[in-house]
Specification:
The structure holds four protein chains of four kinds. In chain A, about 40% of the residues lie in helices and about 20% in strands. By secondary structure, chain A is of the alpha/beta class. The chains are: A alpha/beta, B alpha/beta, C alpha/beta, D alpha+beta.
Chain lengths: ~400, ~350, ~170, ~90
């Protein structure tokens, strides 16, 4: 039932997500400004001001309150969305954990940005990694189109009765949020139909069945409640694939928890998240034209992580290079650590690279070096000679 | 007593907060919670900040709440209330509510969750104008974690983080005037009330708060026998002592207009109130004599300032309590000194401990 | 793939010009990207914006280091070394200037439309690149700016810049 | 911990449905004394009901109807506030 595709519009990732929010028309949107997410909430606020969106926009006084109000609103029985970046996510981290534990299906746009300090407004994924273990779902978009599409998919995933978890749609700050690209939009009616009505099992505002939500759990039940929450996000992988398949029927655009690119016969493969995947696809094409058997595994669903798929898609390669846009000082970079576990006992040689912290650019030439095995661990860092333990020269 | 019968009727065998919780024997909080909630005519939805009330009433998988109840965290009760209120308005507008009833959203937080860690979220919610009632049960310290000093702890009080010792006389800073801070948000209704014998005053204020067309804030003194250091059965008289000594004046700020709602008939020296609680016992050492004077001085100064805000002179009686429609007129004519008959009755039963 | 770098002061409309170019090219069936460079700078500070376009879908998301063309919306910015940095061999530098500058094509944009220098330079760039068509540029500008600006003024600025290059009326 | 529910049997998010939740008895907190009432003296003022922290004063409409000893923790507040001294604390078990 694929519909005729509308002509693409020129939109930034932020504008595209604001448009998706406007089309979803959530009931409540608590917002707090932070660069580079701000165009999203501004775009949505404009839609409310123009009468295109009809929800309650709450200009709260902090990100902590944005997520707190979101949790309360979502559990009260209203579809709720919000957005943040970087320090905003850090400030709300406490309540992101609570959102997941209370099974509040809040959808949040995240414009990925480096964490302070020093303060920086540009992209890396350290904000996402900070809440890695919160139990919230995190989907990474490669470009503005994906940011839009994943935002339309997100409410269905968040509100699925087997999931009931917050979903973050992550897009690289500035690189996607502020970059204008062709984006094909759905009709408002198509989006409304796709997302459907908001339903949760225990709306707080249901007076006929009084509930206590957010209780105090002692050791006799805390563990069980945490396990139950973990099971929900584990099951979300399959639910995401189902909803994405339905989305593909409507739009012709296919999504999965991962996107393999020329992996079938790949001897060497890259693994990465977000906009870097686009640059990497160009490099894979160039190297393939030169006769090299290289490929890419783009992770769309970082949480839940499709470890089995990662294993199955990469185990026949000879070497896997994992690109982390975040560091774990004193430990292994997060994506690398997880891919390494997924491939443990398998043949591929694993390499870890950190890149792009605080918006440092990553060029195709850097990726060629990564494929060639000549790149330093800290890609793009000045004066680094490639040894991880090498101190950064003054 | 008709008001109490009204509350009992509203309770109708289904108290908003039922037994089976694990609050301390003689805890002052449940009375505040039930009196406030029973004074509200509509169904209520309750939000709690982390604190004694929250941990002791909702041990999973039990609950002591007969009404819908939500807890998210410590510092965000007002933000969570904002979310519930916004959801309620959005759903009501588009006909998405499970039922038609008018609701009142009530948030409860202790003084930590109000004066300190919860202040930012509270200030934001008050400024945004959400229609909800925020009730601070102010027991003047972090009781849930073991009686630590808060911004509400009064000058001179010993807590576990401001203990009295050879080199210390307890907390040596004045408490915040949280009621005034709330009033500075120019919200429709702000009031200071107390548990205990002045329950009728509290009930009247809760009813008014629920009817306010916007945010309402109630700062309710609720004793903590453990934290204040007195026998539980003496709670009514000790809370009453705070009112009678003018340490905790009862007043409201209705649409910006200050009004004293109870005026002590005789001035009780603050020292007589302090003496009733272990947390102040070190103030009766000889070396603390000056501190006692200072405390009395502060109470007198604050009382005079409050009277000025209420545009009253020392010796004036407070205007009569209006139980119905919200008053907008200037001071009503002076009537009897004790405006609330039930509270007089109750007071007589609860004599002050020696 | 063609890559354009725009230099201006924040507030002069370089971001808008970069997006208008992209939109007009998108309407001609190209794949496009337009993005500004962000920092803590505020109105008046030098800034850069970029446009990238290609026949094939653009997937890369790195910055533009070796542009095919550089457009400078204010002559005072044209002297810095960063303006020519990375300019590809065979590329060109287009500057809004009333005076000729060595190695640059100087368009007297202020004289053509003092309030719409960005549009004059956009028209000039399109003429020099040979794409997009002036009509497409006009349509894009009216679509994006229609509510904020008068269509005739938009047309005059774009067409003025376009004609200046076509007719080689450089600053002298 | 045999009587406790396993994780698959719990409502999502730890929601507790009032009508399905147990209400633990707290009568065991009493340490020897319980309230007793002399109904001859009781004037149904309801102050004991008002003050009771454990909602352990039962009402029949708006009349006093006894103590719920399953929940009474023996704090003595009811006896302290009773204006007619109708309530006194007596040894538990009597």
């Amino acid at each position: 039932m694929a519909t005729e595709l509308a002509p693409a519009q020129l939109l930034t990732g932020g504008e595209a997500v604001a448009e998706a929010m406007c089309q979803i028309d959530p009931d409540v949107v608590p917002i707090y400004p932070i660069t580079p997410q701000t165009p999203i909430i501004q775009g949505f606020a404009k839609a409310v001001a123009d009468g295109r969106a009809h929800g309650e926009l709450i200009d709260v006084e902090s990100e902590h309150s944005a997520m707190s109000a979101s949790i309360a609103s979502a559990l009260a029985g209203a579809r709720t969305m919000t957005a943040t970046s970087s320090q905003g996510l850090a400030l709300m981290a406490e309540v992101v954990y609570i959102a997941a534990s209370m099974r509040a299906p809040v959808v949040m746009a995240l414009g990925n940005r480096a964490l302070s300090g020093p303060i920086n407004i540009h992209c890396d994924h350290s904000d996402s990694m900070l809440i890695r273990d919160s139990g919230a779902i995190q989907l990474f978009a490669e470009n503005a189109q994906e940011a839009y599409d994943l935002t339309v998919i997100a409410p269905r995933l968040a509100e699925h009765p087997d999931v009931l978890l917050p979903v973050l749609v992550c897009q690289d700050g500035f690189t996607i949020t502020h970059s204008a690209e062709p984006v094909t939009l759905l009709d408002d009616a198509e989006v409304r139909e796709f997302v459907g009505e908001y339903r949760i099992p225990y709306p707080l505002l249901d007076l006929s069945r009084a509930t206590t939500q957010g209780p105090f759990a002692m050791p006799d039940y805390y563990y069980e409640l945490r396990r139950q929450q973990a099971a929900a996000i584990e099951g979300a992988l399959g639910v995401f694939e189902e909803i994405a398949a339905e989305f593909a029927e409507v739009t012709g655009r296919r999504y999965g928890s991962v996107e393999p690119y020329h992996l079938d016969d790949a001897e060497r493969a890259l693994v990465c998240l977000g906009s870097t995947a686009g640059t990497a696809k160009d490099v894979v094409d160039e190297l393939r034209a030169e006769g090299e058997h290289v490929g890419l595994l783009k992770i769309t669903s970082f949480r839940p992580l499709p470890a089995e798929k990662i294993h199955d898609l990469l185990r026949t390669t000879d070497a896997v290079a994992v690109l982390d846009r975040a560091d774990s000082p004193g430990g292994e970079p997060p994506l690398y650590a997880e891919v390494a576990v997924a491939l443990s006992g398998e043949a591929p040689e694993l390499r870890t690279y950190v890149y792009g912290l605080g918006g440092r650019d990553l060029h195709p030439e850097d990726l060629r070096q990564v494929f060639a095995g000549t790149a330093p661990h800290y890609v793009g860092l000045r004066n680094d000679v490639g040894l991880r333990s090498e101190p950064c020269p003054a | 007593m008709s008001r109490l019968k009204t509350l009992a009727r509203r309770d109708a065998g289904m108290p908003p907060l039922r037994g089976g919780h694990s609050l301390c024997q003689g805890c002052g909080i449940p009375m505040v919670v039930r009196t406030v909630l029973n004074s509200i005519e509509t169904p209520v939805v309750v939000i709690s900040a982390t604190g004694c009330l929250e941990v002791a009433t909702t041990r999973y998988p039990t609950t002591a709440w007969n009404v819908p109840w939500l807890h998210v965290a410590f510092e965000n009760a007002a933000a969570a209330a904002s979310g519930v209120e916004s959801a309620y308005r959005a759903l009501r507008r588009r006909g998405g509510l499970p039922q038609e009833d008018e609701l009142t959203i009530v948030a409860f937080a202790g003084d930590g969750g109000t004066y300190d860690i919860g202040l930012q979220a509270l200030s934001g919610a008050l400024e945004r104008g959400h229609r909800f009632v925020f009730v601070c049960y102010d027991n003047q310290a972090y009781m849930n974690t073991g009686i630590q000093r808060s911004g509400a702890t009064p000058f001179g009080a010993a807590t576990t983080t401001t203990p009295a010792g050879a080199a210390s006389l307890g907390k040596l800073q004045q408490r915040k005037d949280m009621t005034a801070i709330a009033a500075a948000h120019h919200v429709p209704y702000v009031a200071q009330a107390a548990a205990g014998p002045h329950w009728q005053d509290l009930s009247m204020k809760a009813a008014r708060a629920a009817k306010a067309d916007g945010p309402a804030f109630l700062n309710v003194l609720a004793d903590c026998p453990l934290g204040w250091g007195h026998e539980a059965r003496l709670s009514p008289s000790i809370v009453n002592g705070a009112v009678e000594s003018r340490v905790w004046p009862l007043y409201e700020v209705d649409e910006g207009r200050y009004r004293l709602t109870y005026r002590p008939t005789q001035t009780m020296p603050v020292a007589d109130w302090l003496r009733t609680q272990k947390r102040f016992e070190h103030l009766f050492r000889p070396e603390a004599a000056e501190l006692l004077e200072e405390i009395q001085h502060h109470v007198d100064k604050d009382w005079t300032a409050l009277l000025a805000r209420c545009a009253m002179e020392e010796g004036d009686a407070p205007p009569a309590v209006d139980q119905g429609v919200r008053r907008r007129s200037v001071n009503a004519p002076a009537s009897s000194a004790a405006p609330v008959s039930a509270s007089t009755t109750a007071t007589s039963t609860a004599t002050l401990a020696p | 793939m063609k890559e354009i770098r725009w230099h201006a002061r924040a507030g002069q409309g370089a971001k808008t010009a970069s997006q208008l170019l992209a939109l007009a090219l998108l309407r001609e069936g190209k794949s496009v990207q337009a993005f500004p460079e962000y920092g803590p700078e505020r109105r008046g500070s030098p800034m850069r914006a970029y446009t990238r376009y290609d026949e094939a879908p653009i997937r890369r998301h790195d910055s533009i280091e070796e542009p095919d063309a550089v457009v400078v919306l204010e002559s005072s910015l044209a002297h810095g070394p960063d303006v020519r940095a990375g300019l590809r061999p065979g590329g060109f530098l287009l500057v809004s200037s009333e005076q000729p500058l060595p190695g640059a094509l100087c368009v007297p944009a202020v004289r053509i439309a003092p309030d719409s220098v960005n549009l004059v330079m956009l028209g000039a760039l399109a003429a020099k690149l040979g794409e997009p068509q002036l009509d497409g540029l006009l349509a894009a500008a009216v679509e994006l700016l229609g509510r904020k600006a008068d269509a005739d003024a938009i047309r005059a600025a774009l067409a003025g810049g376009y004609a200046a290059v076509k007719e080689e009326r450089w600053a002298a | 911990m045999g009587s406790l529910t396993g994780w698959r049997g719990l409502a999502p998010g730890g929601v507790v449905v009032r009508d399905e939740a147990e209400q633990p008895h707290t009568g065991g907190w009493r340490t020897g004394l319980r309230p007793a009432v002399d109904l001859e003296l009781c004037v149904d003022c309801l102050l004991c009901w008002l003050y009771c922290p454990d909602s352990a004063v039962r009402l029949d409409g708006t009349a006093f109807a006894g103590f719920d000893l399953d929940y009474c923790k023996g704090c003595e507040l009811c006896a302290a506030v009773c204006p007619t001294s109708a309530i006194e604390m007596v040894p538990d078990g009597d």
